[in-house]
Write a structure and sequence with these properties.
With 248 residues, this protein is an alpha+beta fold. It contains 6 helices and 17 strands.
């Protein structure tokens, strides 16, 4: 399997839930008190069966084109060749690139940004996101999931997709957050979404203020760190500035 981090840049975020661009060498974190510095980084994974997209970024545009389209092309692929979109949860920094509630998406009548892909999302996460709404969730970003035939809703707490992708509902960060293991041959790629957002959080007992259940999230990080290192997992970190992937 081949992994392609699709970085959308570094941002700070505070209680306002606004993502403010951050340029290293120009901006100073101390000038933004109370802010957390994060990368926004979906992942593209090429397997023998699929071109997988793990979470969908902020949905920002550059020169009238989706940034995530541009990043996928830079990785050497066409966005139309993405076959599966795996969604850990629907916070706006993970769901912005899903689609659009407007009639057309960049010239396409289809409201989904990845027109040939099946989207995998927890039904309970979508229901919660729609009910909770702004500022953590954006109704316009999740509405396309409610209307599209491209969506495969997951209802179980754990299960399997296409014989080689495992998912598990974990909670911790958001009440219906889920994680994925992608297994091919002797290789395992683990995507823990925002329960495991950064490498440094895996190595210590660390509770965050932004998790819905900080105790559960901490315990899961410790569990997966031990299990993953014992079994040679490749970890993917969506919000890590310096280390998008890690394998012991």
């Amino acid at each position: 399997m081949k992994i392609f981090p699709l970085s959308e840049g570094s941002f700070t975020i505070d209680k306002s839930k606004l993502f403010v661009p951050f340029t290293d060498g120009k901006d100073e974190l101390r000038d933004r008190p109370g802010s957390l510095l994060v990368e926004i980084q979906p992942f593209l994974i090429q397997t023998s069966k699929d071109l997988l997209l793990l979470d969908a970024g902020l949905g920002y545009t550059v020169d009238n084109e989706l940034q995530i389209y541009n990043n996928i092309r830079k990785a050497g692929f066409d966005p139309e060749t993405v076959t599966k979109v795996l969604l850990s949860h629907l916070h706006k920094d993970h769901a912005g690139g899903i689609g659009s509630a407007s009639k057309k998406v960049f010239g396409n009548d289809n409201k989904m940004n990845f027109t040939n892909a099946t989207y995998y999302v927890q039904q309970r996460e979508l229901d919660f996101a729609w009910q909770k709404g702004f500022p953590s969730f954006m109704p316009d970003e999740v509405e396309p999931l409610m209307q599209s035939g491209q969506v495969a809703f997951l209802h179980e707490d754990k299960g399997e997709i296409d014989g080689y992708i495992q998912y598990e509902l974990t909670g911790g960060h958001s009440p219906f957050h889920q994680v994925f293991w992608i297994k091919e041959g002797a290789e395992t790629i683990f995507f823990g979404g925002d329960v495991t957002p950064q490498l440094q959080q895996m190595k210590m007992k660390y509770k965050t203020k932004y998790d819905s259940d900080p105790e559960t999230a901490m315990e899961l990080r410790l569990k997966w760190w031990e299990e993953g290192n014992q079994n040679n997992w490749t970890f993917l970190f969506y919000h890590d500035i310096k280390t998008p992937t890690y394998k012991k």
